[in-house]
Amino acid sequence: MTDRLGSTFAALADPTRRAILARLASGEASVTELGAPFAMSLPAVSKHLKVLERAGLIARAREAQWRLCRLDAAPLRDAMAWLSRYRRFWSSPLRRLGVAPRTGTKRRPSKRT
Predict the structure, then answer these.
(1) Distance CA 108, CA 6 (A)
(2) In DSSP terms, which residues pair with 7 in a beta bridge?
(3) CA atoms of 58 and 50, how far apart (whole Å)
(4) Residue 2: pLDDT above 60?
(5) Which residue of 61, 71, 75, 113 has the fewest C-beta atoms within 10 A of its own C-beta?
(6) Going from the N-terminus, what domains does the chain have, and what CATH number goes with each?
(7) Element (H, E) at 25
(8) How many Å is the Cα radius of gyration of the chain?
C-alpha cells in the first residue's frame, strides 16, 4: 500500500507540477495546453501528469481525440488536515519571542530543570 500523504507531498515538491495544478484550478485542460508554458517536450509533461495522477491530484479522461485533465482536490484537503495540526507553530510568532499576544507584555521565561 502506498502512502497517499507522502505521494501528495512528493508530487507537490516539484514547481512544474505545482504550476500544472494551479492551471487546473481554473478548469480542465488538455496535455498540450498544460505543457504550453513550459520549455519541455510533451512526453516530459506527460511524466509530470502521471506523477500527479498516481498521487490522486488529477484525473484524466479521453474526449474524442483530446486527453483532458482535471484537478481532484481531495488529496490536498487531506494534506491540509495533516498540516493544520502544526499550524500553532507558525501562526503565533509572538509566542516564540516571549511576547504575550493579548497584552503585548513580555512573559517570564519558564525555568527548565
Answers:
(1) 40
(2) none
(3) 9
(4) no
(5) 113
(6) 4-93 (1.10.10.10)
(7) none
(8) 21
Contacts 24+ apart (CB under 8 A), 62-66: 66/30
Give the whole-angstrom CA distance, residue 9 versus residue 12.
5
Q: 2 burial class (0-12, 13-18, 19+ CB within 10 angstroms)?
A: exposed
Torsion-angle region of 64 (φ positive above 0: left; ψ -120 to 50: alpha; else: beta): left
- Cβ partners under 8 Å of residue 37, min gap 6: 19, 23
Which grid coordinates are listed for 34?
Answer: 498544460
pTM equals 0.75
- Residue indicated by cell numbers 503585548: 104
